[in-house]
Amino acid sequence: MTEDATGQAVRVVIVGGGFAGFTCARRLCKTFARARRDIEIVLVDPHDYMLYTPLLPDVAGGLIDPRFVTVPLADALPKVRLVVAQVESVDLLGRTITVRGEHHPSREIGWDRLVLTPGSVTRLFDVPGLHEHARGLKTVAEALYLREQLLHQLEAAEHDDDPRVRQARRTVVVVGASYAGTELIAQLRALADAYADRRGLERAQVRFLLLDTAERVMPEVGTRLGDKVLEVLRARGIEIRLQTSLRSVAADHVVLTDGTKVSTHTVAWVTGVTGAPLLSSLGLPLERGRLVVDADLRVPGFPEVFTGGDAAAVPDLTKNGKAITPPTAQHAIRQGKALARNVAAGLGLGTSKPYKHRDMGLVVDLGPGFAVANPLGIRLSGLAAKAVTRAYHTYAVPRGVNRWAITLTYLTNTVVPRPLTRLGLVSPEESSFAASEGIGHEAS
Ligand SMILES: Cc1cc2nc3c(=O)[nH]c(=O)nc-3n(C[C@H](O)[C@H](O)[C@H](O)COP(=O)(O)OP(=O)(O)OC[C@H]3O[C@@H](n4cnc5c(N)ncnc54)[C@H](O)[C@@H]3O)c2cc1C
């Protein structure tokens, strides 16, 4: 038994059960079980599942059932005490956190070691109307809403006599042309195409617009693959406006930064992330909204407090620590393992090591028959990249049943088009930035 000074089992509290927190909890369980030592691991998250975010564009595109991208924490981590609640505050000196759940009032939980992995939220800007009328892509509610909203607008357009209103309903604007926004627009396009084919509509009647302030789409994959992406998106009828963003958003239109007015009822805002709101309440230094941390993932000045994933500005030792690691699942998973190793080392098991990981590249699914990928620097596009991308995601989802369900869905989709049923389960309020991601006007 690993005990504190009072003879109690040492308690490690992990805040956030995403890629980093989930991996850390799982690895800690294994490490202590192997050493036949007991510790208490408490995982706090407002959701009872770990969300596999890289497949959210497939959920928005109606390809994958949302349940398949959620891994139940209680099943996957049976030895961990799960607290389904929001951490409201952290007392770093008193070593407690205060949590509030849907079914219980605020209460305190003490800790001996604290792992802060609350991830990130959509980065919002002060664009009038953005909070009310646009949606992000960080949660199941947002992904489902975008799918249902598109189908709802396409159906409503069929009953509108006014051609201008019809066209507005058949227009989708996505802001953010890095991998998440690009995957999203490709999947929404595929959903609209499936709808058009089934309802006898010309595909070109549904207009898609992708905006970004950058000069290129998907700078993460380099110029050559970026050019390929541009070519494929354009061939699918997606208009791309670079060095352009939104000046304002209203219920039935947006105004672009170049002054153009575009009538639309469907706007997605996928322009990057910033650290979870909890981080700014800690009184600790932040870099780009993320917690400043040492290379061994300890918070400076608090040797019992660790952090990693999107929540942390981890020095990138492959770049001599002059940059921070990007907010990707690839780093969050590996930082989760490093967190477990370094927490265990502080409790007498193994040795602590600084975090160092060379980027393995990206895989980006761009809808029917196409993807781009650069695994280990090898540039791939088309069907080869598609196979690598799907194999990678299927393998990376941390639960066998989910992997099975996703594989079957992909196989089914090679012979049967994606379903177009609209369930109307997520309301505009539930999918708003405030309700879904916990960020409001003050976050802009
Ligand atoms: C659409 C999309 C596609 C992506 N595709 C890829 C990809 O292909 N490859 C890749 O490498 N990365 C991808 N990413 C990035 C990747 O999802 C993130 O880098 C990763 O999720 C970060 O993991 P994390 O554990 O730090 O945070 P998260 O996975 O965001 O988990 C944080 C957890 O903390 C919880 N939490 C937040 N606040 C609190 C609180 N106050 N109290 C308790 N719990 C809290 C949240 O509910 C959440 O469960 C994608 C992201 C998006 C949105």
From TrEMBL:
Domain of life of the source: Bacteria
InterPro entries hit by this protein: FAD/NAD-bd_sf, FAD/NAD-binding_dom, NDH-2
Keyword Flavoprotein in record: yes
Domain (FAD/NAD(P)-binding): residue spans on this chain: 11-336
SUPFAM superfamilies tied to this protein: FAD/NAD(P)-binding domain
Keywords associated with the record: FAD, Flavoprotein, NAD, Oxidoreductase
Gene3D superfamilies in alphabetical order: 3.50.50.100
A Pfam short name: Pyr_redox_2
Family assignment from sequence similarity: Belongs to the NADH dehydrogenase family.
Protein name (Swiss-Prot/TrEMBL): FAD-dependent oxidoreductase
Species of the source: Nocardia aurea
